[in-house]
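Hi F.,

I've been meaning to write this up properly since the lab meeting, where we talked about keeping a consistent format for the predictions we share between groups. The idea is simple: the sequence comes first, exactly as it goes in, then the structure tokens exactly as they come out, then a line or two of notes. No screenshots and no reformatting. I'm using this chain as the first example so we have something concrete to point to.
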Amino acid sequence: MNNKEFTSELSRRLGYTTKDTSDIISALLTEITNQLSDGNAISAQGFGTFEVRKKAERISVNPVSKIRMLVPPKLVLSFKPSPGLKDKFK
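Output, unedited:
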């Protein structure tokens, strides 16, 4: 399902116009992005939790040249599905 199909289906189910639904989705994604940028976790009941985690710096070895490189620390987005969502895919 692509974004257009998702927006159409959601607008049909909610009874809003496609434009209004698109604006709602855009506002939701903007707020989620802002919260994650501020370091806050986002929890959706029955779906899961998104959070930003810091990965520590580490040493990586190029398998061909055997050169060791230092990989700097970075922030990564992680998702932990809720138990209910996990059960649906077993």
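Notes:
Strands lie at 42-44, 48-55, 58-61, 68-71, 74-81.
The first strand starts at residue 42 and ends at 44.

If this format works for you, I'll send the rest the same way.

G.
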